[in-house]
């Protein structure tokens, strides 16, 4: 079977990450078309990725051109723009085209209400490590989306990460853990490096130590799934009364475990708040 034609409306950080993952996974460039706002951005992105990129600045119907004949349409615009874009493109879509949103807080119902009846819809929550083939994405299907279409979209993402099909009611929780999660890891690396500098290390060395340590620990977590979870791996490197135990005790005394959980929960609550705000606008 030939590769599905994909239309990517918007090439911001998330759609850019998805596109990079798709292309690195072998998806043919001739089967991808994208749109951006400005002509200069369209030219730069076309040169960067080797795909066709249309500019709304040059053609008001750029989005309509992009989605005609597409099998999968990936909406990478801002959350508050998703419904308007759905309404704009609805009559240019093939009935089989799966409209896929990567915007936080935009529900299946919001998209379905702006599209023609029975248009397949999938809500996703990916994270940016998709761009290096190590991402996570959650998928929630709409009411008219078939299992085969869910499988098709899952396979597109699977080339660059771990895909999880789940009820839409769990998407906000996934956002709190995985959607926002890369920032938590970067935050940890940032402050590990800062601690190294405070203890006399060269800043570049300290940054490399933090980055490589998190990268290696992450790979250990993935490779040991099924035999050892995060808690066990932590215990494996925490010798009684040793250096690591002293650090972990310090984290515990500072309430770090509860803070991490609270942060993830705050992210999920914020996603729900944005959903409510978007709903009230409609």
Automatic annotation (TrEMBL):
Domain of life: Bacteria
Gene name of the encoded protein: proC
Family assignment from sequence similarity: Belongs to the pyrroline-5-carboxylate reductase family.
Protein's name in the database: Pyrroline-5-carboxylate reductase
Keywords: Amino-acid biosynthesis, Cytoplasm, NADP, Oxidoreductase, Proline biosynthesis
One Pfam family cited in the UniProt record for this chain: P5CR_dimer
Ranges for domain Pyrroline-5-carboxylate reductase dimerisation: 168-273
Organism name: Nesterenkonia flava
Stated role: Catalyzes the reduction of 1-pyrroline-5-carboxylate (PCA) to L-proline.
GO molecular function ontology, one term from the record: pyrroline-5-carboxylate reductase activity
Primary localization class, coarse: cytoplasm
EC number: 1.5.1.2
Reactions this protein catalyses: L-proline + NAD(+) = (S)-1-pyrroline-5-carboxylate + NADH + 2 H(+); L-proline + NADP(+) = (S)-1-pyrroline-5-carboxylate + NADPH + 2 H(+)
Occurrences of domain Pyrroline-5-carboxylate reductase catalytic N-terminal (ranges): 5-103
Pathway(s) it belongs to: Amino-acid biosynthesis; L-proline biosynthesis; L-proline from L-glutamate 5-semialdehyde: step 1/1
Localization in the cell: Cytoplasm
Lineage, top ranks: Bacteria, Bacillati, Actinomycetota, Actinomycetes, Micrococcales
